[in-house]
Amino acid sequence: MSEPNANWGGRARGGRPRSEAKLDAEHAAAELRRFLDVFVRESGMGLRYSVTLPGASGEGGAEQGITVAFSGADEDLLLERNGELLLALEHIAHRWLRLDPSLHDMVRLDCGEFRSARLEELKLSARVAAQRVRETGQPFRFNPMSSRERRIIHLELNGAAGVRTASEGSGDRRQLVIYPASKRPAF
């Protein structure tokens, strides 16, 4: 691996987060390719990958950051159990790159458009649940989900009429709840 103080969005020497961390996409992509080459070779999985840099995809690329798309005979293995291996591999990639946590959303791994389909599914679920809360006046509680998925729902419903969102619980049991705008949760 490269030097610990590399300038692609990692942590500064001594483990302190850099102030206003920025992603050096070129360096991060090169290091990401090194990691993925090792993973594909050593895992023996029938996978190929392509890396897309910010701005390379045309519209919205600058917001999306670096995207890795997997394909191949073993892509089903990455997607089993709701994409568990894909998400774990993304976590390891973030660690390999020593990314500041604020930059995690800037490096995404996907396979068979799993991530984009999940994003649309979460947004639709948020809108349907919000409508149900408006009609019934009763809060709606989602099953526990990752902070990234909760954030997507919070953003989707930010400013939505008649509802508000809150995250409740702790750890891997943390849930997002949609409340009618007039009701406050009991703590």
Describe the structure.
Mean pLDDT is 84; it is low at 1-8, 10-19 and 57-62. Strand 2 (66-71), helix 3 (75-97) and strand 3 form a beta-alpha-beta unit. Helix 4 crosses helix 5 (147-157). The protein is elongated, with a radius of gyration of 19 Å. The protein has helices spanning 25-43, 61-64, 75-97, 114-136, 147-157; strands spanning 48-52, 66-71, 107-111, 140-141, 163-168, 175-180. The strands form 2 sheets. A 3-stranded mixed β-sheet has the order 1-2-3. It has 2 domains: 25-112, K homology (KH) domain (GMP Synthetase, Chain A, domain 3), CATH 3.30.300.20; 118-180, Ribosomal Protein S8, Chain: A, domain 1 (2-Layer Sandwich), CATH 3.30.1370. With 187 residues, it is α+β, with helices and mostly antiparallel strands. The chain is 43% helix and 16% strand. The longest helix has 23 residues, at 75-97. The chain is built from 5 helices and 6 strands, in the order H-E-H-E-H-E-H-E-H-E-E.
